[in-house]
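QA checklist item 7 of 12: single-chain prediction sanity check.
[x] sequence parsed
[x] length recorded as 355
[x] structure emitted
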Amino acid sequence: MATQGEQGLRLGDIAERVGLHVQGDADRIIVGVCTIEPGKAGHIGFLANPRYRPQLAHTQAEAVVLSERDAAQFDGNALIAKDPYLAFARVARLFEPAARPLGPPLHATAVIADDAVLGAEVRVGPHAVIGAGVRIADGAHIGPHCVIEDDAVIGEDTHLVSGVHVGARCVLGARCRVQAGAVIGGRGFGLARGPQGWEDVPQLGRVRIGNDVEVGANTTIDRGAIDDTVIADGVKIDNLVQIAHNVQIGAHTAIAGCAAIAGSTRIGANCLIGGGVGINGHVTLCDGVIVLGFTMVTRSITEPGQYGSGWPVESARTWHGQVRRLRRLDKLEARVAQLEGQAGGNAPSAEEQGE
């Protein structure tokens, strides 16, 4: 696999590896990837968003990953793809620098319980702590300062970057990537009000994560109160996401940064949850739901499609005017009802009043 510091790859070889068609000179050497604007000699860019099409005319990139439509209007070197963005991701992977091993496979400062079971080629970084009964499968990488509590299970080729905390009895599948500072299996926010104030509700479940899951930096996934919190195969979770106890997330759903999902929520497969979304507890989102950024989900969604709420940005003067008009709606509604009554009209129904 080539890296940007090496001699590179022929454009034709790249096309063969990722299953694309070459337009132009297949012998051009590509040493890395770049943006289409301004582009960079010897590198390959991509065009997926039509808004950037004008940049194609003067890009300095050696080649560009394009749709068939855009390639027909481009005289330079190209790789033609049905989905240029997906194709570019696969091309870029060819130039991703290989991770360099840090020190010995088991660092001298790591603390590993005597009965922990580590598979072949497992790496454990400085100051990591591996608890009693932990099982770590072949090829896993436990980065510096990670803590894995008793009886947890880490799957094959899973990588905990650094400072990751995995709670007792939690399970991570194969090929997962957990970024720095994530907490998996922390205490769920279970509280009951007693005569002297709040009392803790024991959180007796765990977190179960499937295969090929990505967990972003400083994201928290709480263990279940009784049943488990479950993250299915292929889920991608961004940074700073809060997932509360007993949440279930279906396969291949993606959740953007700063989303907050309250307890016992069920999210289906192949959903997209935008940044800053808040989802109430005990609601269900069916498969194939797209929730736009900063939406507040207060009820279950039973049909696939796009959903949103909130108020798009306006100038401060316009926004203040809109708020003032909204605050007058109750008085306006009352005035309309009064006028209708005086005219002998029917009062608005509960449905018309939005009740």
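[x] summary fact logged: Residues 10 and 29 are 5 Å apart (CA to CA).
[ ] second reviewer sign-off
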